[in-house]
């Protein structure tokens, strides 16, 4: 997008953006409204909802932001947080009734009829509720023939639960229910923290949306009415009072003022605006009043275009990410192979099925390439979001990755760096 400046020296497409501006096509009164009309009494949505609707485009057919699908994709922080706390609470009795824990800490848990079923029943709930995230992820990976981290974790907890349940039902050996629930708790906690960090990275889009005001003063037949910004349409005439934010992209029809565009262009000095000049939604009006004809809303607005670039950058993949995916795939296969070898070796040398299963599960969990599969995308997502917050728009993460090799940067003349 060459042209309009975003602070940090990243050029935006002035020409691309300019063709979207529409000339005002309706006559407007040339005087300030004599009095304010009665505002609409429709329920006003929350600030966040208003921004989301406005920038996503309120007309039918607009795409839905990815964040709205996060809950359904089982990858939102709320999913992992809720499952972690429920699983952790259910894990406490399992750990307290574990024979090895009692022996290590030197106490005896309270026994009563049916107490021997506390660990199996609660572990089953933790496995099915807390572990379902990993089981579902493992199934998705296996269906796509790309085993990964979820496959390792899902296989490990499945083997641990199946073996422990078998010992409870009569198979010789000792169950390790407390190891199972502890593993699920730790994995849920780790993924919760990872998803929180990713969510904060995506929060850069929400911060951009907050630049817009929640309401606007629309002029209808010489009177003003206060409406949610989401109800504005191209062609509407709005009144921008001194010190308030411009509610949408548009063209000044009457009035003169200076507008502070620093938050969207990086230009520190107020920009003089006269009839015929363009204004950007989210900028702050100075001392004069302006009547602005709305030209662009939603995804066609300047901020909408900025948010689209940031979102596209979040979805693009770098060479390092593609390499990490390939390495993680082979690491998973190696972990499964080594886990199987460990199982056979311990079973042959010790004759203990308990030790063999425990070692196989341990190998699969320890070898799980979480750091490689989660940390690299996380770092890139956070760096892209932080760049957007500081005014550097990254359209292609691959270019962002290569930026470390840059030795010289050339800025064209804008008056501000």
TrEMBL record:
Name recorded for this polypeptide: Heavy metal translocating P-type ATPase
Keyword Acetylation: no
Compositional bias per record (Basic and acidic residues), positions renumbered to this chain: 22-35
Every P-type ATPase A domain range: 210-311
UniProt-listed Pfam families: E1-E2_ATPase
Chain intervals for the UniProt region annotation (Disordered): 1-46
Membrane protein topology class: Multi-pass membrane protein
Cellular component terms per the entry's GO annotation: plasma membrane
The species this protein was found in: Thermorudis peleae
